[in-house]
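I would like you to sit down with the record closing this message with an eye to the fold:
=====
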Amino acid sequence: MQYVAAKFDMVGSRKLHRRSDVQKHFLHMAAEINVKFSNYLEAEFIVTHGDEAQVLLKASHAKWVFRIFEHLSISMAEVDLRCGVGLGTLSTDLQDISIGMDGEAWQNAKQAIDNAKKKRQTIGFFGFDSELQTHLNAIGNLLCYLQARWTKEQTETILLLSQNHSQKEIATLLGISQAAVSKRLSAAGWQHYYCGRESLEMLLMKVGYCYSNQASL
């Protein structure tokens, strides 16, 4: 069985102002992710060292790994986060929570986040087909680069959009006009980001499709 493991790390967490509050927010986000993405997690998202976390999905649900990182990074826009995504098998029994396991998937996730750190990138993929991996790393980091340049107001608007609110509903919630919502999304390059994210997810779906077909043979 093939899995996708993801590791997350706060960049420069020891220098954070009010670090304990940020860590509490991280724990809150773990609980939120476990509810929001419950249908796609093979082992629950868990914060492991206060400023690190990890999660495990089946390869057939690989497309959701970027959405998890996106939701986490948008919701915790006050800190810089890094993510490493690894594809592979497990060498230990599957656990309900993403801890106490080992195998290719986890080793590749560690390699992915180490590679991203060395290259000063936000996200890394490792253990995938080499050509696919090149595309995943390129598109993933372009999306993260764009996301990092959103203003507080743009991030707030996109977070509500990710919660399936319409632009009209967002306008009401934020107390601004619908035209102002549209302007924020346009200034954030949302349409370009959205198309890029779809391309990344299509590539990840190829991984999922491949291994779901193998499992059915």
Q: What stands out?
A: Residues 121 and 141 are 7 Å apart (CA to CA). The two ends are 12 Å apart (CA to CA). The longest strand covers residues 3-10. The beta strands are 3-10, 43-47, 52-58, 81-88, 123-126.
